[in-house]
Amino acid sequence: MFGIWSLWCSLAFVFSHLDHKFGARGEISCPALKRRHERLQVMPPETTGVKGSVVNNNRTELLNGLTVEYPIVDDGDPNSDGAPQQDLARESGMEDPFAQISANPYPNPDPKSKRRKRTIRSVARRHAEVFERIPVGQAGPSLLETAQGVYSSRAEYRRSGEEGKGSGQRQTEPYLDTSTFALAGDSAHNQAMVHWSGHNSSVILILTKLYDFNLGAVTESSLWRSVNYGSTYTKMNDKIRSRTVLSYLYVCPTNKRKIMLLSDPEMESAVLISSDEGASFEKHPINFYIQSLLFHPAQENWILAFSHDSKLYSSMDFGRKWLLVHDNVMPGRFYWAAVGLDKDQDVVHIETRIAKSRAQYVRCRAQRCTEANRQYLFPGYVDTNSLVVQDEYVFTQVTKSGRASYYVSYMREPFKQMQLPKYCLPKDMHIISTDEKQVFAAVQEWNQNHTYSLYISDSPGVYFTLSLENLRTSRGPAGNLLVDFYKVEGIHGMYLTNKLIDNRVKTFITYDKGQTWALLPAPTTDVLGNNLHCVLPFCSLHLHLEMSENPYTSGRISSKDSVPGIVIATGNIGTELSSTNLGMFITSDAANTWRQIFEEEHSVWFLDNGGALLAVLHSNTPLRHLWISLDEGKKWTRHSFSLAPLYVDGVMMEPEAENHIITFFGHFSHRSEWQLIKIDYKGIFSRRCMDGDYQTWHLHNKAEPCVMGEKQVYMKRRPGNRCMLTQDYSRIYSSEPCPCRSYDFECDYGFDRQSDGKCSPAFWFNPNTTTKSCSTSQSFLNSTGYRKVLSNNCKEGGRSVFSPRRQACQPSPPRGLRLSTSQGELAAPAGTNVTFLGDSQKTHIQLHFGDGIKITYSNLSRTSDGIKHVYSATGIYRVTALAENSQGSDSSTLFLHITSPVERVHLSAPMVVSRQREVNLTAVVWPSHSRTLTFFWWFDNSSEPRITLEGTVSHTFQSEGTSKVTVQLSSGGVVIQDSKRITVKELFKSLLLSFSPALDDHNPDIGEWRADVGRVVRRALASGFPADRLLVSLYPGLPTVGELFILPDTHTQSEHKKSTQEALERVSDTFINVLNQGLIQFELKPEVRIIVYMTQQTLAPHVDPGSIHSGPALLMLLSVVSVGLAAFFIYKFKRKIPWIHVQAEDSQEKDPEVISTVGQNDSMSKVKLSEFPSQKDLLEKELEIRSRGRSELTNSVNIW
């Protein structure tokens, strides 16, 4: 599942519907704030209580759109705001500076309400523009939660509106100028939507509504407008006709003077349009019900509208006229063109539903989206809810045979499959970020259940490497994924995340974009100045990383571009992250040191472009005080903002505004009107900042001055100076590149970071494979195992140590020739174009289509566009490709079924068999099929297959050598295949292998993994011994077992059987000795070494096949049975050794082999002790297997 980061574009917005499918929906993204799309989704009335953040006359919480009600608290002590009741007389020592606040007389009825809901990180965040009150009778926690505690002594200044002005204080002392306005007559309205129009505009619009939960509709509404920053409001109902009931308010992100109101569809379906910030409106009826809107990122009049019946409409005149674009559109899966990426600005990217789980990616012009003008850019179908268009990238997903593949298009180029490490085998994926032309993805690997791993891509988003494992995640109320991952604003490469270690969640930080991670140091003292003895790594600081989905709340962690290095967060000190004993912590030096600023949880906002901090206590009791700091949280002054205590439901301010105005929303009691308190905080400053008010600050990581490859110096206001910051002052004072080091580079695809910091090839990766660039040039860039971290500005010396090195392409014979259809299918309908794709070195290629037609290409490097061919008749065609050059040749074969799609099959076959001895081959179908199946068996270069209706076939190999066997399965128009190469020998020896238990923990139980591990074991065994005489095979299931096959010397004459047998015995004894001493080892991954052991010696045919077992052979057989008793129990109950074929005693039917897959249930049925066979029964069964009905005992158990 992909996700999208979203930023707030204005203060008017709605929650967007989320799902947990692959892909996500960025419902609001603002071009002015680093995003190019703004989607404003209308909430159906029946779901408003879930989707909308609300302001409630009964103290409603604004968390993740959950609407809850609090017990009614009448107006109380005007000084009771949960903060210490300090006074100016405190300076004389007459008042305890650490006085505890009085207990809340109306305690929170739900003890769990202290927990704030976690917000989405990798999926599109839920946005709110609705304040809501719900009927009395429901109870729940408050947005501003109670947090009891003490504060350190602070100087206090009180100034509240006219009260402050009349006190006679000097104007040099900081003060707040406040005014309160009540929306008279709307006390019954239980929802409100608020918007501050334009940058530095004085216009504020508020839409209040009475939503009837019984009727599921809005029955009353009022529109209020202020032209003086909220000092007074005027009711606008007469401007829009008093009988019109309004449901939603939208604002154009590129011209905020343009306002759109939607009437309630239960009354009438219409839009009301204003071009003068709501001073006047014009009404236009529409014939559909709008569920969501998407404004164009550059054209202010262009809008996309999604209707309740899954149709997409477009308007090029700001909603006056609408034209149907496409039907059957998936909710939230439509996107405007990106400026500079799409050729035409009116291009629309759409995901359209074809079937229940199938969709298509369609691109067309918004006003010309007829069938003839539509483009289908992805070859084939995609999964529903998978299309994501974000920045330079387009993501989608395709699931086949239960396994998902993920695709990306970079800069609108053709799609490429995203490449994760070979055995990552993702079950789920979410895109966390696409900033700086790089993809951060949270991936749930095959062996993870509740955690995800962080992967980082190259610039095109194709090749990913692991950054950190086991990130903490959870699911939101709508099933959306929540990932604990936070990007620190203002500093490149700095991220925070919470990781699960030994069932404990700890907070980690990186300064180099995920190359190294470290724990956070705890403060040296608490808020009272007491020493804290918290020593890394046993004790550290842990933070809650949830950001607010609601702009009227601050979230639990905050940072800002304009004040680099400052981070404020809720957290705790100890061995793990906790939900209790929370406090507020701040760093002003980019997390190198931390200070505790409050013992209770607060909402904290940045004021004055980050030059000041505003804090409000989390409380479910009324408040009348707030806290402001001008020195990065070292000193806090308390100010009154209301004469009477206010139940604070939200705080609104215009981002980056120069007017220094904020607005508090709330109610004095549950019976009062909506109260809007305008606060002008300009009085806390004495003047504008000058050059002498700033100081330099050097960014560093502990004692290391180089961060992201450079030494950076920032300008910051001197703490405590009461001057206003100017928006245009330069934050970065200077930067100087540093010499490159290994951690300025991330490991390239296929390489792992070792404990010494170096990148070395993973066990499954061969770095010596010639790159595809040799197909079109005389040289290529060969990776050194490193790739430079994007946005890192380090400088390499004269000799490039880490960057790729250019090497000449060496002449080589064709190898790795592949032949496939463009869709990857092995079947196609008759009469359609079949496109064949190939890949080889620059060479001469002959292609036989199998129907009598042959074509030849000279100097063909890569058939990127494919070779098209039309088959006129149904049947099975053997398509072959032969590649030749002066160095050699290679060939590839494709068996193409015309008229059939395909499924999946696994061919179980021994790796080595005896010549002229009948062998059973078994095809195991996954998943199981109840319909009749047809099996096609291909042996070597046979032109016709053997066809069976059963999944078994017997075959005799007549000559020694290597033979290729391919089985294809046809069912219901679907064809799938599997192939094996089998070595045929007269004599050979084999040993059964076992491995360290750690290998089972990393065994995904798939064929490719077994083949790669077998290759590594073979290489380890072949030291000093010819590798071509050794074969290693690993078998399905757990525990992991394998078999070593020792082949005779090919130069020995076939008639010298005795000498060959003796040579095999000597070699076998040598390997037995080496294996028993544990000398054969290999590294699976950093710090994971696997030892190979010999489990037992198998009975490979090293004597005349016609002879009878001798006495020692029978004793050896008894030893085999005795030693392998436990393994046989597993084999007996469907964990059988795969190369031994057993017939059931009663039914005489073959017991099918079970192939495990990712995501399969690992549970195993329990077996009673009485069901285990005796040792005598085991021996009799083993002898019966080997006899197989013959009159004499054979010498081989390698029979299928």
From TrEMBL:
One of its GO terms (cellular component) is membrane. Gene3D superfamilies: 2.10.70.80, 3.30.60.270, Immunoglobulins, YVTN repeat-like/Quinoprotein amine dehydrogenase. Residues 1-16 form the signal peptide. The chain crosses the membrane at residues 1113-1131. SUPFAM superfamilies: Oligoxyloglucan reducing end-specific cellobiohydrolase, PKD domain. Its main location: membrane. It is a single-pass type I membrane protein. It is found in: Membrane. The keyword Cytoplasm does not apply. Keywords: Glycoprotein, Membrane, Repeat, Signal, Transmembrane, Transmembrane helix. Residues 155-165 have a biased composition (Basic and acidic residues). Residues 849-905 form the PKD domain. The keyword Ribosomal protein does not apply. InterPro entries: Ig-like_fold (IPR013783), PKD/Chitinase_dom (IPR022409), PKD_dom (IPR000601), PKD_dom_sf (IPR035986), Sortilin_C (IPR031777), Sortilin_N (IPR031778), VPS10 (IPR006581), VPS10-sortilin (IPR050310). Residues 70-120, 154-173 are annotated as: Disordered. PANTHER family: SORTILIN RELATED, VPS10 DOMAIN-CONTAINING RECEPTOR SORCS3. Belongs to the VPS10-related sortilin family. SORCS subfamily. This is Sortilin related VPS10 domain containing receptor 3b. It comes from Gadus morhua (Atlantic cod).
